[in-house]
Amino acid sequence: MSAEIDDKRVQHVVVQLLSRAHKEGASDIHLLPQAAHLKVYFRVEGIIQERPQVHAAFMAPVLNLLKVQGGMDISERRRAQDGAFSVRLSDEQVRFRISTLPTQYGEKMVLRVLGGEALARTVEQLGMGRQNSERVRGLLSRPSGILLVGGPTGSGKTSTLYALLRELMGHDLSIVTLEDPIEYHFAGIAQSQTNPQAGHDFAGGLRAILRQDPDIIMVGEIRDIETARIAFKAALTGHLVLSSLHTSSAAETVVRLVDMGLERYVVASALRGILAQRLVRLLCLHCRVTSSADSALKESAAAGNRQLVSTLRASADGTFFTAGGCKSCHGTGYSQRTGLFEVLPNDDGLSRLIRNEAASQQDYAKYMVQHHLTTFQTAGIQKVREGVTTVEELLRVV
User: Fold this and answer.
1) Which of 9, 143, 147, 385 is the residue whose CA sits 20 to 30 A from 341?
2) Of the candidates 16, 238, 264, 281, the residue with the CA atom closest to the CA atom of residue 145
3) How many whole angstroms separate alpha carbon 174 and alpha carbon 188?
4) DSSP collapsed to 3 states, the chain
5) How many CB atoms lie within 10 A of CB 261?
6) Edge to edge, what strands does the sheet with 145-151 contain?
7) Cis peptide leading into 181, omega within 30 of 0?
8) Using CA atoms, how far apart are residues 206 and 344, in angstroms rounded to an integer?
9) Confidence at 309, pLDDT banded by 50, 70, 90
10) How many CB atoms lie within 10 A of CB 318?
11) What is the pLDDT of residue 317?
12) What distance in Å separates the CA atoms of residue 45 and residue 76, rounded to the nearest whole number?
């Protein structure tokens, strides 16, 4: 067998792998070397799923080809590397970000699939509902302040930030973003990608943006106190700032800002509001199965949050749905995801609470309940009652 044919076969394996991941809507591809083969996993709708393995003979060639495409050093296998590339799949240019990690049997590789339909959504398409959409639009209408999107890794924060930007476009405003990486390109918006090796990190990039006469600034993520201070200072000096923070809830986001080292009066003055989010899988409409509410809750009570199950039982009014499994959803019973949102606007009451040094995360959570603001629990219960997701899925996420 010739080297030319071998190269073509390797390319075929790689293209088939990337095409399948793209077709299935995977957010990540995991390639894990073993002694006798290369294990393949896709993260689809937040869940890791195993796919057919790659034969050992193709393991090194496949990984090397991907490293070459990503602009990485194929001779270096002892340290982690990062890279990126784009390829045309099904008449669409798809971008991938690669990271490697040395392991026992070779380099583990993870490819993040960038872009996609999720990043082109509007505020309504995120799944936050009419009332929360109106609250968010109210926050965006203010000329200055900072609006934060909180959530764990993979919860759709970037999709939400892009939806907020889309809402602000067309209003004769100067919009500048600082991202790592740029996952979706907007016409008419100045988008800058960080490059720490060249000294263009979030803090330095944000300082440079402030010299660009912006009306609106989007910072992909606040990762350190220096970036946080600059972002909040910008919010206090007449700019509308959008950014994200790794937190688990709206209440925790407030606490995290103070714990990072921001003064309480700065947070209380600059903060316009917080969107916190998580993603739940949507039931596949081709194979969802009707179930009595009582039956669905009995099956979930033992393994789940008893308080949530109790609340669901109290609000149940007949039929719930459970996951089936068919060809359309690859046997999972679910297809696509939607968001659960907490929207916490800053008003005089919340501002006073933030300035109170004794205020805890529980106090902010209690504030949301007292002011009839949507929590993850109430948002999730509504989606279960609407038949768009299951009790099991809600218990997994909330």
Assistant:
1) 143
2) 238
3) 9
4) CCHHHHHHHHHHHHHHHHHHHHHCCEEEEEEEECCCEEEEEEEECCEEEEEEEEEHHHHHHHHHHHHHHCCCCCCCCCCCCEEEEEEEECCEEEEEEEEEEEECCEEEEEEEEECCHHHHCCCHHHCCHHHHHHHHHHHHCCCCEEEEEEECCCCCHHHHHHHHHHHHCCCCCCEEEEECCCCCCCCCCEEEECEHHHCECHHHHHHHHCCCCCCEEEECCCCCHHHHHHHHHHHHCCCEEEEEEECCCHHHHHHHHHHHCCCHHHHHHHEEEEEEEEEEEEECCCCCEEEEHHHHHHHHHCCCCHHHHHHHHHHCCCEEEECCCCHHHCCCCEEEEEEEEEEEECCHHHHHHHHCCCCCHHHHHHHHHHCCCCCHHHHHHHHHHCCCCCHHHHHHHC
5) 11
6) 190-193, 175-179, 216-219, 240-246, 145-151, 271-283, 334-345
7) yes
8) 25
9) confident
10) 9
11) 65
12) 33
362: Cβ–Cβ under 8 A, 6 or more apart, which residues?
251
Measured in degrees and rounded to the nearest 5, phi and psi for residue 80 equal -70, 145
CB atoms under 10 Å from CB of 244, counted, come to: 23
In contact, 147 and 164? CB cutoff 8 Å: yes
Q: Side chain identity at 319, as an amino acid letter?
A: T
Share of the chain above pLDDT 90, in %: 77
Q: Are 72 and 79 in contact (CB under 8 A)?
A: no
The whole-number pLDDT of residue 300 equals: 60
pLDDT one-digit tens code per residue, 123-176: 999 999 999 999 999 999 999 999 999 999 999 999 999 999 999 998 899 999
Percent of the chain clearing pLDDT 70 (strictly above)? 93
Among 379, 137, 165, 157, smallest CA distance to 253 is for 157
C-alpha of 349 from chain center: 30
Per-residue pLDDT of 31-52, as tens digits, reads: 999 999 999 999 999 999 999 9
Q: Hunting for tokens 């921001």 — which residue is that?
A: 262
The amino acid at 323: A
C-alpha distances out from residue 178 to 161, 221, 243, 384, Å: 12, 9, 10, 37
Q: How many residues does the chain have?
A: 398
Read off the pLDDT of each residue in 51-65 and give the average, rounded to a whole number.
94
